[in-house]
Specification:
four-stranded antiparallel β-sheet, 4 strands, single chain, mainly beta, 72 residues
Amino acid sequence: MEDISVALTVYFDGQYWVAKSEKNIDGQITVAKYLFKKEPQDSDIYSFVINGEDRIFINFIQPIAALKMCYP
């Protein structure tokens, strides 16, 4: 069984509204971002997620092994 987690963060970087997606599938992380033209409303974000964000993301980074943090 695959271990899958997904996170979507929407933030303003000072110039653009950005959606950042992080997907972790069995320790392989894919990160991508999308630039919104204007401040997105909740309905815009919902539509963005439902309509397949993978097709419109830019700047994909190839999957990398998840880093394991060690705390003393």
